[in-house]
Amino acid sequence: MAHDHAHIDLESGDRRVSISIWANGLLTVAQIVGGILSGSLALIADALHNFSDMASLVITFAARKIARRPADARMTFGYGRIEIVAALINYTTLILLGFYLIYEGGMRMIDPPICGRCRSARRLWTATSC
Questions:
Q1: What CA–CA distance (Å, rounded) separates 50 from 97?
Q2: DSSP helix/strand/coil, 59
Q3: By the 8 A CB rule, do 57 and 15 touch?
Q4: pLDDT band at 32 (very low <50, low <70, confident <90, very high)
Q5: How far apart are CA 75 and CA 15, in angstroms?
Q6: Separation of alpha carbons 45 and 32, rounded Å
Q7: Which of 11, 92, 114, 121 has a CA between 20 and 30 Å from the CA of residue 107?
């Protein structure tokens, strides 16, 4: 069986992951500022999503670096399994952020924020719950 596909240079892959980390970081900051200034839970939720993406990329970047280490006396099979631990950390983070967003959304349904657009929505919610 021939081995005829090309492999990407590891340093090139690291550079791409690094650029993705910085892009997600800048987008996260912009969305948090916009969400706070506008009072938008949707923007803050998307900012948390982008932050979790950035954190996942940081964990992945570190795992890539560690996984390349050769086997030694202590880690006789090498460090390749660190990538599985990184995936578990990423998954757990997403689950926790999801629970936080569900909680925050529920709190806003119970006690919605008062703003010019929301007054009529609050009256409608109050009228339907009586």
A1: 11
A2: helix
A3: no
A4: very high
A5: 27
A6: 9
A7: 92
The rounded distance, in Å, linking the Cα atoms of 24 and 16 is: 12
Quick one: CA dihedral 13, 19, 25, 31, positive or negative?
A: negative
Query: With contact defined as beta carbons under 8 Å apart, do 54 and 21 qualify?
Result: yes
How far, in Å, CA of 84 to CA of 91, rounded? 11
Chain centre distance of CA 83: 17
Three-state DSSP class for 121?
helix
Residue 83 buriedness (CB in 10 A; 0-12 / 13-18 / 19+): middle
Question: Phi-psi category of 66—alpha, beta or left, where left has phi over 0 and alpha has psi -120 to 50?
Answer: alpha
Digit-coded pLDDT (tens) for 58-85:
998 999 888 888 888 887 777 888 889 9
pTM: 0.63
Distance from C-alpha of 120 to C-alpha of 87, rounded to nearest angstrom = 44
